[in-house]
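ok, trying the design again with the full structure, not the truncated one.
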């Protein structure tokens, strides 16, 4: 209930300030969508289905044992991509990784949340991202994971159809993705220049008070 009233109060404040925000965004120059910003972020900003604090996705025991990134990819390849309206009759529903392990069905954030948790459990400093692919509409968000390995950052596209497309060096594919937010093992969300770009392009058409669906 506290989170609900925070959401309503903040949404009302932003609605009242929207003309000022719209004017200020005209002067925002986003050179790199991947550049972190100091913009405060609450967990529910990451998507319409983000209604739990991020520590919740790490609660409970996992029933799937994977010891490597390759094993993680192999398990994901055995899962089925299904839209939330078809699976849960909701526009955007973020599954707990334990539920995803039982169903082995879901959309991009379900795949990515599970992969993020498993990578962190392996001791890898992975981050879960929401944003959009460059070829997507501004109001159609996506989820993926970024993790370091051997001094390089890699992007994990958890719904890719094969291992080759699932793991790619970030430098090779970063132009294809526009990050809005990410969260790491400390569960503290981080905003990026891509979100400011989204606000600027969308003209603040309710984006602050009604996060888009993901998947």
């Amino acid at each position: 209930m506290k989170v609900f009233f925070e959401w309503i109060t903040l949404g009302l404040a932003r609605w009242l300030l929207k003309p000022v925000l719209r004017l200020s965004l005209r002067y925002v120059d986003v050179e790199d969508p991947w550049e972190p910003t100091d913009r405060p972020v609450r967990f529910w900003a990451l998507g319409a289905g983000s209604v739990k604090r991020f520590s919740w996705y790490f609660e409970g025991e996992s029933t799937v044992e994977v010891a490597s990134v390759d094993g993680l990819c192999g398990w994901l390849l055995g899962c089925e991509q299904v839209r939330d309206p078809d699976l849960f009759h909701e526009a955007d529903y973020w599954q707990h990784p334990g539920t995803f392990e039982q169903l082995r069905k879901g959309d991009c954030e379900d795949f990515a949340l599970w992969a993020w948790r498993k990578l962190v459990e392996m001791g890898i400093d992975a981050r879960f991202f929401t944003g959009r692919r460059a070829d997507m509409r501004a109001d159609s968000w996506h989820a993926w994971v970024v993790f370091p390995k051997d001094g390089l950052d890699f992007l994990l596209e958890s719904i890719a159809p094969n291992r080759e497309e699932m793991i790619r060096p970030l430098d090779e594919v970063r132009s294809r993705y526009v990050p809005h937010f990410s969260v790491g093992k400390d569960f503290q969300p981080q905003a990026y220049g891509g979100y400011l770009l989204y606000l600027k392009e969308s003209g603040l058409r309710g984006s602050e008070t009604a996060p888009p669906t993901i998947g």
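Keeping the full-length input from now on. Residues 1-10, 12-17, 205-209 have pLDDT under 50 and may be disordered.
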